[in-house]
Every structure is written in C-alpha cells, then in structure tokens.
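User: quick one
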Amino acid sequence: MKDSPEITKGEKIQYSRFKPEMYQPSMSLFWWTKRTPYLWFILRETTSLFVGMYAILMLIQLNALRRGAGSWEALIDWFQTPLSITLHTVIFLFVIFHSITWFMLTPKVIELRFRGKKIPDRLIIAGNIFFWMMISLAVILMII
Amino acid sequence: MIVKKKPEAFWWSLFGVGGTLAALLLPVHIFLLGIAGPLGWIEMPDQDTFRSVATHPIARIYFFCLISLSLFHWAHRFRHSLNDGLMLKHVEAYIIILCYGTAIAGTVLAGILVIII
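Assistant: Done. Structure below.
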C-alpha cells in the first residue's frame, strides 16, 4: 500500500488531513450567504460571540466593584455613553436571539415523555419561554 | 465493542449548560445594567450596595458559574463556526487552543475575582 505508483509518480505529494492534494473542491468562503437558512444558521452561531463578550463585561464589572467606589463610578459613567448603550443594545439583541433559538432547539435535543406519550414540542418551547420570563421577572424584582 | 470517549462530549456538555444559563439569565442582566440603568429608567446600584450583594456566598457561585459557562458556551460554538463557516479546519489546533484557552483563562480570572471581591 505504501508508495502506490499511480499516486506518487516520483513527485512528493503533501497530504494534509483536511485538504487532499488530488481532490480540492472549490467552495466560497461565504457559502452561508447563498441561502437564507444558511444565513440564519450562521447568525444563530454568531450569538455565541456576544454571549462571550458579555461574560468579559461581567468580569470588568466585578473588577470595578472590587477596586472600590471610584472605579465603579467610572464604569457607570462609561456605561452612560452612547457607545456603551449602543454596544449593550447590540449585545442584548443578539443574546435575545440566542435565548429564543436555544429554547426552540430544546425539544430537538431532549425528548420528554409523560405516561408514555411524547410531550409536544410546542409545549416544551412555551414552558421554556415561560420559565425564562419568570426568572427575568424575579431578577428585576430583586434589583428594583 | 470498544467505546472511545471523545473530548467532544465534555466540551459539548459545558456548551449546553452554558447556553442554557446564558439564555435564561444574560438578557435581564444586560437590560438592567447596560440599558435600563444608564438610560435612567432604573436607579444604578452604588458600589457599596452592589458589592454587599455580590459578596454573598450564593452570589459568588452564581457569578462564577454564569461567567465561566458563558465563556465555554462561546468557545465551543465559536470554534465550530470558524471550522464550518469560515472553513478553517486546517488550523483547527490553533482555534481549539485559542477558544478553550480563553475560556479557561476567563474561568480562572472569574474564580479569583469572586474570591477576592
């Protein structure tokens, strides 16, 4: 099997794991802009970037809290700038999109049964969204 | 039959828990602290009040889990987006180190911050 003559032909052919020398189909880097469902898919995956960004912002908040009143006030002042409000609004919209798509995916990942009958997908999605609303309301009531 | 344990299952479980926590909790956090507070719809908490809330043992665990798992959610999903969306599978090793490395570093930082806050 080693040194198969019809493949090597005396030349040094470099094989890599994902791009074989002999077969390189061309595909646009922007394949996901070609069809709407692809675009939704990439948009859904991109929400993770904003989830990560907010995790970093939470680290910044905790650090400002730790450093004292001065640092916290400075952060609050920055939060009131149009740049920050715009940034937070964009993050908010993407994270809302993440929440909705995530709750809609749940019935595809887990199949819940009650007395042998499959619980309808819609009921699981509605339950998720209801739970999400209750938690959000609880946090709002705790803060205000 | 030999079942080989793949690391994918481990990262996927962190991705799953992180995605759920982020979906449930992040919108209300971002809305209150990033939008409603700065626009004056609600009063922003001062450092003393917020710190006394954040130093409660449950709040420490809460912030640690929320930050860390959100980062692992990002790491796993972003890694696969780069692989599939931008077809960067040939530099997969670097992407894995970058994504999970960032999440691990963030987790360590979150752990330190919730302890010393």
